[in-house]
Specification:
The chain is of the alpha/beta class and 277 residues long. The protein has ten helices and seven strands. It is 42% helix and 12% strand. Bound molecules: magnesium ion.
Length: 277
């Protein structure tokens, strides 16, 4: 896909996110929106994985370590044919398998996540196994910035560099907010780039809401050998919906009919702009 096609797709996925949050009246909408561009790039351009061949052992793996931001993930899996689009209506309803966090019962999901700090460890295991079995699979793991306060992240980081897991791509959704406020007030994280570098990662910092930068960074990282990789993706929580952007309160919440229409109209306008541009 071209960059503008990917940008359009990301807006469509954002519209799917607000549809889910409006219909269910729950959802971690802010972080789903901040990470949406990278998730779109991964599934529509970067990763070698598809619904027809979803158990191929050579496939790339994705782990949503910040598992609470699952809404965009479901929308993408439905759009890519892993699940039926009609099933999205069951999101967070009684008896559904589309619960509020990733679950392996959902085709295309590799691992249950949600308890923060575990995704990188699991991804390290997948990456190490791929190397031992001489498979070409790469492992992509999306972490939150609030999640960086979990000690298990840093244990996994040591493991990744110790075993030179250059098939491991960590992505840090650096939206600077977590459930209880700005990360630097809750638990100071900076200097993050230096920390990840010190732990043996090749680190690239980008604007994680800029599709061109996202595509470029994955191309650059493909050339790096012998080290695990970390994309420090500066993003905006609630990206794409003006009243949600950079607002802690939109970490989690439902959308009433009025706010849903405002959000939907903004995204429609953005989509039209991309179609005309
Ligand atoms: Mg955050």
């Amino acid at each position: 896909m071209t960059t503008v096609e990917l940008e359009r797709k990301a807006v469509e996925i954002r519209m799917g996110i607000i549809d889910l949050v409006h219909a269910s009246q729950v959802g971690h909408v802010g972080g789903a929106l901040s990470s949406c561009d990278i998730l779109t790039a991964l599934y529509y351009q970067i990763m070698d994985v598809n619904s027809c061949d979803r158990t191929n052992p050579e496939r790339d793996r994705f782990v949503l370590s910040k598992g609470h931001c699952v809404e965009g993930y479901y929308c993408i899996l439905a759009d890519k044919g892993f699940i039926e689009k009609e099933e999205l209506a069951s999101f967070c309803q009684f008896g559904t398998r589309l619960i509020a966090h990733p679950d392996r019962r959902v085709p295309g999901m590799e691992i249950n996540t949600g308890a923060l700090g575990h995704g990188l460890s699991a991804a390290c295991g997948m990456a190490k196994a791929a190397k031992m079995l001489r498979r070409k699979s790469r492992v992509f793991v999306m972490m939150g910035d609030g999640e960086q306060g979990e000690g298990s992240i840093w244990e996994a980081a040591m493991f990744a560099s110790n075993y030179c897991l250059d098939n491991l791509y960590g992505i840090l959704d650096r939206n600077r907010l977590q459930i209880s406020g700005p990360t630097e007030e809750v638990m100071r994280l900076e200097p993050l780039k230096e920390k990840w570098t010190a732990f043996g990662f090749h680190v690239e910092e980008i604007d994680g809401n800029d599709m061109e930068q996202i595509i470029d960074v994955f191309a650059r990282l493909a050339e790096i050998q012998g080290k695990p990789k970390l994309i420090l993706a500066n993003t905006i929580k609630g990206k794409g919906v003006s009243f949600m952007e950079d607002q802690t309160k939109w970490h989690h919440g439902g959308l009433d009919d009025h706010l849903y229409q405002v959000a939907r109209n903004e995204l429609l306008e953005e989509l039209r702009g991309l179609e005309n541009g």
